[in-house]
Amino acid sequence: MDNKRVFLAVGLSMIVLLAWSYFFAPKPSEQPVSTEQAQSETVSAPNSAESTTAQPASAPAAFVAQSGQSVTVDTPLYKAVFNSAGGILTSFELKNYRETIAADSKPVNLISQEAIGRGPLGLLWNGKGTWREAQWAAPTTSTLALSGEEAGSLTFTGQVNGLRITRTFKFEADSYFIDEKVNLLNTANVPQSGRLGFTVASEALTSKDDRYNQTRISYMTADGVDNEKDTDDLEQGLKFSDGVKWGAVQSNYFVLALAPQSGDLTLRANYQNGLYRVQADKDNLTIAPNTQTNVQAGYYFGPVTDKYLADAPNQLGKIVTYGFFDILSKPLLTLLRFFHNYVGNWGVAIILLTILIKGVFWPLSHKSYKSMNSMKKIQPLMAKVREQYKDDRQKMNEEMMRLYKTYKVNPAGGCLPMLVQIPVFFGLYQALLGAIELRHAPFISHVPFTDIIWLADLSTKDPFYVTPVIMGLTMFLQQKMTPSPGDPTQAKMMLLMPVIFTFLFLNFPAGLVVYWLVNNVLSIAQQWMMLRKA
Q: From CA 88, how far away is CA 69, in angstroms rounded?
């Protein structure tokens, strides 16, 4: 009886297996209906180590091509829309940033309609866009929603000339960084060799007339971080192959960065037809028949801020730079954020930081003004020496030095203390110019007692030019209070400086003008105290 039951069970199992094979076997591949096709699915994050070494592969599943469809990734930080035909981006909206200060303004979208044709986030094989050349399978899901600290991923699968391409993107709800693993499987009977290219593309992220916030190509190679703003040079193209870490299209506030797996990389960048494009090629890939290889890359689409870039791989944190005085700008920006945490207004925070800096340099400024007053007292004697020895330059200099020694005056005493402060001034200037926190940050949103919008955005100019004009007036008053130099020509030039600076500051971001204006007012107060004491 037991044997009969065993035979019966085995027989029923065989019948089930045969029936399953007959009714549910995979269908043969169909001919594609389009050259832009895709697959996407939600999967768990891969745990295997990334490698570019070819590995044996099991027989691939049947491939069925479909036309491209939209797949949305929704996180608290952004909403990204992919086209399943190649996994290219068609939209990337930043939820926490708006285009303008208007209440109904749209979120900032880093992918424009014009850029889609250049395949942002697309793959290239031997220089050809796989979103056009390859056939792509249909998506199995249309939405991936993440919240809190969740992570998730999408997979897009395509096929071109016997090469199976599998793109797996990993997303995190609290990060703008996107990790990708590309698996290349050779299903042909001959080896496949070539280069795999990653690319990002974007229109200008800023207005062409914005001299203080220009769109640029940034990159990091063995020589460090650099950038190129000149579109004429970019039309000729850039190319680097030594120690490439990343390439990016960026402005002061936003960035689209590409960071492929290191080794055998060539970075190219250009500007054509109003579009900036960065491409990184993984060179010298060879895949034997029925083997596979993996290549990893990372992307960052979001704000230029240490908050999200500091922990990004491939040294992407170095995108956050403030030029030559970067070493001073970053701590000053940290102090600015500290004050903002307490007062809740970025304009007030700038004023408090300016007061702090002025307080630190108060002794140096005091010494400078004291030296200038001493020089003022001996100016009649200096004029007499110049007149007496106007035909003998050497004798004039000797008498001048004797004059300085007799009255214990250092002619450079008024300048040296000021020179020490210049790097800090420029460091704060760069910090205020590049701080995304000041973008759309209000100081005095409306003209008092009216509905007229005024300093509602510290990253743009004062719409009524009130602050730069007042700044110019304070600078003129400061010049009048400062002891004039002995040279009349130099004195006239100094009086022209307020006019020059006023016109220069008319289109400056309001945050910078507020800083300079407050600094002038504090300098006037210090000079007034010095004169009163004298």
A: 11
